[in-house]
Amino acid sequence: MTETSTQFDLAAVNDRISTESAFVDNLLSEVGRVVVGQRYMIERLLIGLLADGHVLLEGVPGLAKTLTVSSLAAAIGTRFQRIQFTPDLLPADLLGTLVYNQKEANFFIKKGPIFANIILADEINRSPAKVQSALLEAMQERQVTIGEKTFELEAPFLVLATQNPIEQEGTYPLPEAQVDRFMMKIKVGYPTRDEELEIMRRMARTGERDVIRPVVTPEQILSAREVLNVLYIDERVEQYIVDLVVASRNPGKYRMDELSNLIEYGASPRATINLNLAARAHAFLKHRAYVTPEDVRSIAIDVLRHRVAVTYEAEAEEITSEDLVQRILDHVEVP
To answer: Is the Cβ–Cβ distance between 262 and 324 less than 8 Å?
Structure first.
């Protein structure tokens, strides 16, 4: 392919990106009418939606996690279900079950709340392993089997799970292998002082509050997903993604021997795939037709923090997985 034709192709993709990504600003603006601040969380949720990847949210109560997710679903005009995970929840409560009809003397299928487009799995670590596994299987396979029938889950399908980092008593922490199925793990922080003031002014009142209007259709989201496949990503950026993941497994190869005793195990191949997809989605949010190393760096910690396990030595020194990922980002050469 000649340089002229490559430039033409990139220009054509750029025009398509400009058209397809026009809804992003409207969507962010509409959600922002209800949710004060939390731009970082909203953008990461959008990246998960565009890249067809599920998101794990971790933060103390009261940080508008539920409000943000429900507002995002309302702005897209999709079906939304919030599922409160509790110790007595059963897989059938999530997926659905066979119910016997005495009048007709037969069984019929009653579908569960999993049959929606956007699922908020609130406090996922409060339910036992069977329920967590049922949800994660639906996330991975995009289908649910009830009795002898298998049902495809309607696209777009996105699971946003929350967990409370404070209360650990009576919880069932997600195993590392199951956490790996989430594209990103986002840590939700407190608002700034100015944002806190605005939250108080908006919310410290009785009566009706602002209602989110649908400004995007599910079809636009699915179309945007197809566009991600034609975004240009240079081979050097691809090599950079692989270097980051391999460095988490074998830091000595990248002259980071001091990390060898701090990393229990590194990121899985899912991290490589998700870094690529999330970087593409990040470029799409910025209305760009190409991926830069900065796109990769912007989402690297969110994609890797739950995939890099620390050793006892690291815990004793109060070194977190985020610290280790940041050291890798600082050390691996940027193309």
So the answer is: yes
- What is the rounded distance in angstroms from the CA atom of residue 42 to the CA atom of residue 27? 10
pLDDT of residue 148: 78
Helices in the chain by DSSP H: which ranges? Answer: 3-20, 22-32, 39-50, 65-76, 91-95, 129-141, 176-179, 193-203, 218-228, 235-249, 269-285, 293-304, 312-316, 321-331
Model pLDDT for residues 211-260, shown as the tens digit of each residue: 778 888 888 888 888 888 888 888 999 999 999 999 998 888 888 888 88
| Residue 95 · residue 114 · CB < 8 Å | yes
* Same fold? 33-87+114-200, 231-331: no
Lowest mean pLDDT among 23-37, 67-81, 204-218, 240-254: 204-218
Q: What angle do CA 265, 271, 276 make, to 5 degrees?
A: 155
Mean pLDDT of 27-52: 84
How close are the terminal C-alpha atoms of the chain, in Å?
23
The pLDDT value recorded for residue 223 is: 86
Q: With H, G, I as helix, E, B as strand and everything else as coil, classify residue 254.
A: helix
**Using CA atoms, how far apart are residues 122 and 120, in angstroms rounded to an integer?**
6
Q: Which phi and psi (to 5°) does residue 109 adopt? A: -95, 125
The structural architecture, per CATH, of the domain 231-331 is Orthogonal Bundle (1.10)
CATH 3.40.50.300 fits 33-87+114-200, yes or no: yes
Q: Go through the chain and tell me how many residues it has.
A: 335
Phi-psi category of residue 33: left, alpha or beta, with phi > 0 → left and psi -120 to 50 → alpha: alpha
Rg (CA), the chain: 21
For the chain, the structural domain boundaries read 33-87+114-200, 231-331
Instruction: Find tokens 């944002």 and name the residue.
Output: 195
